Amino acid sequence: MPDRIVLGAAALPEPERNWLAAVERLPIESVWQGGHILPPTGTGEAITRLALMTAWTERVRVGTAILLLPLYPPVIVAKQLADLDARSGGRVTVGVGVGGEFRHEFDSVGVPVAERGGRTDEAMALLRGLWSGEPVTHHGKYFDVDDITLRPVTPPPGDPSPAGGRPGGPPLVVSGRKEPAMRRAARLGNGWLPYLVSPSAYARSVATIQTEAAAAGRDLAETGFEWMMYVYCSIRRDGDRARDDVVSFLGGAYGDKPAAMLDKVAPSGTPEQVAARLQEYVDAGVRHFVISPAAHEDTLEVVTLAAEEVLPRLTLPATAAPGAVPAASRASS
User: Fold this and answer.
1) DSSP assignment letter at 308
2) Which residue of 132, 292, 294, 313 could cross-link 10, Cys pair, CB 3.0 to 4.6 Å?
3) What is the DSSP track for 286-304?
4) Does residue 327 have a pLDDT over 50?
């Protein structure tokens, strides 16, 4: 995979046709959206949102950030994702995580919260088997299937949409912040997509994942492993407004001193200021940023400034970060 810096964008609060069309005209390479089964607000579920984004885009990759995989029967979700990948021309990427912050979601589908990590690991392996196109027999701790074959949908004759998914199925990129998630990414994932971590914490995660991958006999560079980052941020001409955006959007979860804490993990400010902060992540190993506007309004402005004024300011380091592929001289979109 070329060593370059690219941008994605999160379609918040909901996928919207005109917003997505505007983003596709920018130097943006991917769009993302996740979702809960029983969210506390009136927002969508990950697979249905993904379906909307595949239908309402033509060029960009579309991804889940994130799909709470332990809540889903693997055979059903494998079929859904394979069909969407086939009908989008292989543009789907699946960001997976274990969740757990809303315990009632797990109770409602009969999945113990304590099993979420093990179920996710086993489900990822089962998805890969199902997407191989070969018959699958699997007898695990959580899932049992005997001699089943998954066949993605075949578009009807004359359908103008690009047909055909990726061989072997969509990439599975792992989200999280803790070491179990890093081990999952190293051993089972096609990429690493953490969130709300500082540049130094990201650099440590790169080193951990490389060590775990080597222990498992995986060469991540050969597999095209993606070093990604889901970044809550706000970018405005008025830097104070951007900082107010982030505090208003995320501050409630950080106690009585949100601004200082948020500044470490959620960049905000003018394009120049945010570029300087994102450069720290590039130096730590990030190559694919998913810009998640931490703002309640004018989110397209945030994404536009990121694509047109922040991305051109980012440069690849002269020497690669720990675990990253060798660096080139300049970012490209």
Assistant:
1) I
2) 292
3) --EEEEEE--SS-HHHHHH
4) no
Q: Please, are residues 288 and 295 in contact by the beta-carbon 8 Å criterion?
A: no
Q: Which tokens in the block code for residue 118? A: 């093990």
pLDDT reading at 319 higher than 80: no
Enclosing domain of residue 88: 33-170
Single out the residue of 327, 322, 325 nearest to residue 199, CA to CA. 322
Higher pLDDT, 180 or 262: 180
Amino acid at 328: A
Torsion region of 103: left, alpha or beta (phi above 0 gives left; psi -120 to 50 gives alpha): alpha
What pLDDT is stored for residue 198 in this prediction? 96
| Residue 299 maps to a domain | no
Span 172-196, mean pLDDT? 97
pLDDT digits 0-9 by tens, 4-36: 999 999 999 999 999 999 999 999 999 999 999
Distance CA 281, CA 300 (A): 23
Q: Half-sphere exposure (CA, 13 Å, Cβ side) for 130?
A: 27
Please list the alpha-helical segments (H only) found in 101-223: 103-108, 116-130, 179-188, 199-215, 220-223
CATH number of the structural domain spanning residue 75: 3.20.20.30
Asked whether residue 65 carries a pLDDT value surpassing 90, the answer given is yes
Query: What pLDDT was estimated at residue 21?
Result: 98
- 66 domain residue, yes or no: yes
**Which residue from 325, 117, 323, 326 is spatially nearest to 208, judged by alpha carbons?**
323
Kindly state whether residue 199 falls inside one of the protein's structural domains.
Answer: no
CB contact at 8 A, 247 and 262: yes
The total number of structural domains that make up the chain: 1
- The average pLDDT across 220-225 equals 94
Residue by residue, DSSP assigns 189-232 as -SEEEEBS--HHHHHHHHHHHHHHHHHTT--HHHHT-EEEEEEE
Tell me the two tokens of residue 6: 């690219």
- Consecutive H or E run containing 234: strand 226-235
Within a domain: residue 281? Answer: no
Q: What tokens appear for 128 in the block?
A: 């890969």
